[in-house]
Request: fold
Amino acid sequence: MREDMDNQYYCFTFIAMNIIENCSLKQFNTFGIEANARYFCEFFSFSVLRSILCEPKFRNIPKLILGGGSNLLFTGNFNGMVLKNNMSGITLLKEDDTHYFVKIGAGEPWHRVVMYCIAHNYAGVENLSLIPGSAGAAPLQNIGAYGVEFKDIFEELDTVNIHNYEMIKFSKTDCQFGYRESIFKNKLKGQFVITSVTLKLDKVPKFNTTYGAIDKELDTMGVKELSIQSIAQAVMNIRRSKLPDPEKIGNAGSFFKNPEIDKAVFEKLKSQFPDIVSFPGQNSHYKLAAGWMIEQCGWKGKRVGDAGVHKDQALVLVNYGNARGQEILDLSRKINDSVKKKFGIELEREVNIV
Ligand code: FAD
Ligand code: EPU
Reply:
């Protein structure tokens, strides 16, 4: 009797949670890698998420929180539960004289959030237009583009602890943001589900056109007076011309970070390679363009089976069709070896390996 009741309970919760066994993840990662999850569940609410985390059958198996799958490389099947975050909603929490505070469900597609903010004249997100993925993953690696990082517009976020289901808020300081870094990518990796993020956006825009390509594109567009709409459009135009569309060719954006080095190392490299491409980094460091170094090593446009280096952007590794994750990872290691040999610099991966 007890067992029957348990079975009934499980059947009920399985339907309510809509758990799929042996689910293909191919359509859930922008690299388009074929890999299976032992269990897969999409959750739209905190209560469903909590039910899954509490469920005895799943409590002790590995969990992977999935957003848009645009910064992941699957190198094999995932022998655990993949939890796809679909928590939605964009709400104006409050405003003061200078700012809007906007709370966003973690499953909202990031670019939809950007478009929503621009339509409502909430300024600050415009340079981050067209970055794939979900709002909940944005803090994980402190997404950045065209002179702006997520931390610049961040107020706080809400999480659930995967192990004890406790709900905890994180402030900007708590998140320990850095260049493509946060506490959730390091010390607290895999420990928390981010359920919502709150942005602090400007009422009066502070236009950021420090990234040279933006001014050039605004000129081409014939823009005379800056607006958040025109900056967003310029950023979208540049991105469409530079980065491969994952709908057409599998990729996860930049595979590596741009290395940050101190002045002494930079000066030595500059004397050996006068054309080396660099940008001012944080704390008087220099950021090197990894794409340039990879290109100098002869990798740009190279293809090994179905794994390759994009023909126009050497920092982006691509799947031409049926590459396995391991093949892309092997290619990335070869690239790293040759950059290390030529420049003495170790590249760090940006993409999360699963
Ligand atoms: P996923 O790939 O699903 O997950 C990434 C990591 O976050 C995983 O470890 C996952 O477990 C974890 N995670 C996801 N959601 C949650 C959550 N709710 N709670 C806890 N953990 C979670 N990035 C930039 O910074 N700048 C760019 O300009 C940029 N351009 C890109 C261009 C292209 C064409 C592509 C394909 C990618 C680009 N990226 C860029 C990388 C990517 O878009 C970002 O890293 C994005 O934030 C990933 O979001 P996602 O929802 O797809 O995350
Ligand atoms: N370059 C080359 N060859 C290449 C690629 C780049 O020589 O094949 C040199 C060029 O001189 C170019 C410079 O590198 O001017 C910088 O290239 P780009 O403007 O394309 O930017 P990136 O450094 O390659 C970074 C981010 C991108 C972000 C753009 C714009 C990292 C790891 N990548 O790329 O973010 O969109 O700047 O801000 O910081 C991502 O994180 O996935 C991502 C796409």
Q: What stands out?
A: The longest strand covers residues 192-202. The longest helix spans residues 325-343. The two ends are 41 Å apart (CA to CA). Confidence is low (pLDDT under 50) at residues 1-15.
